[in-house]
Amino acid sequence: MFSNGIHISTSTYEVGAGFDLVIDDSNPDDLEFTLLQSNREVKKEVSNNLDLTYRVQTEDLHANFSVFYNQIDNYLFQQNTGLEFHDHEEALAGEELPVDMHEEEGLPIYVFSQQDAELYGFEADVDWHLNDNLRISAFTDFTRAKLTHSTDENTDLPRIPSMRFGTELHWEQGNWHAELGAIHYSKQDKIADFETQTDGYTLVSAAFNYYISLDDTDLTFYVKANNLTNELAKVHSSFLKDVAPLPARSFVLGAKVNF
Length: 259
Hints:
By secondary structure, the protein is mainly β. It has no helices and 14 strands. Strands 1, 2, 3, 4, 5, 6, 7, 8, 9, 10, 11, 12, 13 and 14 form a 14-stranded mixed sheet that branches. 9% of the residues are buried.
C-alpha cells in the first residue's frame, strides 16, 4: 500500500496501491508524474481454490499427479507502467518527479494494482526404483495466469514461470552416490505489457558423493557440476533476468559435516 521509492534489490521504482500515479504529459520531452494518496480502497484478496491429486505408491514406484484452479478476487500484483524514473531520489507524496518513456537509462516504474485473476495448471512427479542401485525421477509443472473481467486486450499476468520438466538418474552403491540430471524450461511468451519474452533453455547437472559415518557424525565429500552445457539461462519471474541470469558452467568440490 505504502511503497513509494526505489527498490534497490529489483532495480525498480515502486508505487504502492495506496497512491495514484498522475502523469503530466504537457511536455512530451520532459514527462513528470505526481503521487497522490488514492481514494480507492485496497481490498483483501479472496480466493476460491480447487486442487485434485492422484497418488501412486508401490514398493518401487512413487508418483503424484495434481491439477489446480485458483479464482482470486482483488488479486494484487506489480504492473510495469512503461515509464522510467531518472532522478534517483525518493519521492514525497504530491511532489512532481521526472520520468521518461524513451531514454534507456533509468529505473522502470511499477505500480501495485488489483484485479480479479485466475491461475490454473498442473504438477507431476515420479520416483521409480529400477533396482537396488538405480533410481530415476522426473517432474513437470505448469501455471497459466491471467486477469478476468479486464477491459485490456492483453490479460496475461506478469512474471509467471514457464512450463518446465526434468529428470534425474541416481546410482547408489554402498557409500557412493552419483546423479545426472537435466531440467528444461520452456519459452515464456504469455507476457504482460512492457514485459519481454524469455527463451527456453535446458540445464544439465551432475554430482558425485561419498558418505562416511563416524559415531554421531555424518561426513559427505562431494563434487558437483552445474550448467554443464553453459546455457544462457534467464529466470522469467525475476525483475533482473536480463542483467542477472543464472550462473554459467561451474564446478564445486567440498565436504559437509552433520552432527
